[in-house]
Design goal:
The chain is elongated. By secondary structure, it is an all-alpha fold. The model has no long low-confidence stretch (mean pLDDT 90). Helix 1 (2-17) crosses helix 3. The protein starts with a helix and ends with a helix. It has 3 helices and no strands. The longest helix has 43 residues, at 44-86.
């Protein structure tokens, strides 16, 4: 699927060159602080289990973001093709 791999290449480029908003950075900082505070009340085994859960959650969200990107890019491409094909028929 050459078309899909080109979209995935674009996705990877966007991921590598994106910047974070102030709002995202603030939420990330709050999450890290809350997790560190939460970790203080856990034993080592629970910390490991939590890390595994967070890793799975991160992987799942990463896959979801990639799928949304592909779906959005595909839709945008189809819309542009429709505009070029139909032109100014209206």
């Amino acid at each position: 699927m050459e078309k899909e791999s080109a979209i995935l290449e674009l996705y990877e480029y966007v991921q590598m060159n994106k910047t974070s908003s102030k709002e995202y950075s603030m939420k990330l900082r709050k999450f890290i602080e809350a997790k560190e505070e939460f970790d203080k009340h856990l034993i080592d085994e629970q910390k490991e289990q939590l890390e595994n859960l967070l890793e799975l959650c991160g992987d799942m969200h990463g896959q979801e973001f990639q799928e949304y990107f592909i779906a959005g890019y595909t839709l945008a491409t189809k819309l542009m093709a429709e505009v070029f094909i139909n032109g100014n028929d209206e």
